[in-house]
Amino acid sequence: MTDGPNPTAGHLLTIDEAAAFLNVPARWVSEAVRQRRVRCTRIGKHVRFRLEHLEELVTAGEQPVALLPVAAGDVERQP
């Protein structure tokens, strides 16, 4: 047996399971739902997430790598 959620493509995650998947507090997930910053599925008063909903959130938050330009005359000094 495994501990915690084992999300698959068709499995719906609760707020607590989504928070564990994202490694953030459940309150952050609840606030993101209220502010419509994350896609979710509502079943009555219950909020559920598909794995692809959470993956979209992660992808949207990815930051590109910023490369610093190196001037032609600059030489890196080693200690």
Give the number of DSSP strands: 2
Q: Give the helix/strand class.
A: mainly alpha
Spatial extent as radius of gyration: 20 Å
Poorly predicted runs:
none
Helix count, DSSP H or I runs of 4 or more residues: 3
Query: Could you tell me the strand content as a percent range?
Result: 5-15%
Task: Give the strand line-up of the largest sheet.
Answer: 1-2
Terminus-to-terminus distance: 52 Å
Chain-averaged pLDDT: 84
Shape: elongated
Largest sheet, if any?
2 strands, antiparallel
Order of helices and strands: HHEEH
Explain the overall architecture.
There is one protein chain. This protein has helices at 15-22, 26-34, 51-60; strands spanning 41-43, 46-48. It has a two-stranded antiparallel ribbon. Helix 1 (15-22) crosses helix 2 (26-34). It is mainly alpha-helical and 79 residues long. It is elongated and about 65 Å long. A hairpin with a 2-residue loop joins strand 1 and strand 2 (46-48).
Brief write-up:
The protein has helices at 15-22, 26-34, 51-60; strands at residues 41-43, 46-48. With 79 residues, it is mainly alpha-helical.
Give a topology summary.
Layout: H1 15-22, H2 26-34, E1 41-43, E2 46-48, H3 51-60
Antiparallel strand pairs: 1-2
Helix pairs in contact: 1-2
